[in-house]
Amino acid sequence: MSGAAKIGCAIIGSGNIGTDLMVKILRHSELLELTMLVGIDTASDGLARARRLDVAVTDRGIDGLTEDLDVLNRTDIVFDATSAKAHLAHAPVLEALGKTVIDLTPAAVGPFVVPAVNLREHLDAPNVNLITCGGQATIPVMHAISRVTPVRYGEMISSIASKSAGPGTRQNIDEFTQTTARGLERIGGAARGKAVIILNPADPPLIMRNTVYAFADDADTPALLESIHAMVDAIRAYVPGYRLKTEPIFDSLKSTPVSIPGYGTFDGLKVTVLLEVEGAAHYLPAYAGNLDIMTAAAKRTGEMFAESLLEKRATAGGSAHD
Amino acid sequence: MTDAKRILINDVTLRDGMHALSHQFELDDMLAIARALDEAGVGIIEVSHGDGLGGNTITYGFSKHTEEEYIRGVAGVLQHAKLDALLLPGIGTIEDLDRAVDWGISVVRIATHCTEADIAQQHIEHAKQRGLETVGFLMMSHMLRPAALAEQALLMASYGADCVYVVDSAGALLTHEAAERVDALRQALRCEVGYHAHNNLGLGVANSVAAVERGADRIDASLAGLGAGAGNAQLEVFAAVAARMGIETGCDLYALMDAADTLVRPMLARHGRAVQIDGNSLALGYAGVYSSFLHHARRAAERFGVDVRDILVELGKRNMVGGQEDMIIDVAVELSRKKE
Question: Count of A–B CB contacts within 8 Å?
Answer without folding.
Answer: 108
